[in-house]
Amino acid sequence: xxxxxxxxNSQASKNALIFATLKEVCDQKGLQAFNYGMYGKDRESQLTxxxxxxxxxxxxxxxxxxxxxxxxxxGQGAMTALNSFPGVVCGLAEDPTDAYLxxxxxxxxxLSIPFAKGFGWGAELNLKLIFERLFAEPVGGGYPxxxxxxxxxxxxxxxxxxxxxxxxxxxxxxxxxQGFLKETISGEHFxxxxxxxxxxxxxxxxxxxxx
Length: 211
Description:
Elements: E1 2-5, H1 15-29, E2 32-35, H2 49-61, E3 67-72, H3 76-82, E4 90-92, H4 96-106, E5 110-114, H5 123-134, H6 148-165, H7 169-175, H8 178-184, H9 190-197, H10 202-210
GO molecular function, one term: isomerase activity
Keywords: Isomerase
Pfam families: DUF3666, LacAB_rpiB
């Protein structure tokens, strides 16, 4: 599984801490972790939480990533933005129980975390525990286990509904403001990670043409 981290501008200074914690857990569980920034560097390409949503959709729909970890000050804006784009089912987790229940009941492919609200003493420990519980078991295993079948059915219904009411991502990429799109994919390591991991097809071709 390929796990991507995306930070927006207000919490970019915490990127190194967040990624180090995420990578530690991913390494333990045999997962690949990729840091798409922001990195908290001077004059780097900016990402708002809305751009986090677009970037997450590009990564997930192209199979460049299988799961996206994102967030903002409260986690609410990033969650809302990620869920606004096709192919993304994003939850919000303030603690390890949130992360585990979202993974097992909702079976989503993205998680938003508050990186300012409540981010104080022991924050790195809470992050590590969130990531450990998020990836503790295969996604969609159900909780409690006897509810697994109806929970998977409901998660499938949600994905089907989203496929009907959201525009396909290639259409979104054509219609969205191109300056907004170009800034979204202008991160320091985006081209390197995306081109190496995205599956061949329309989305990869469209993004490659805009790099």
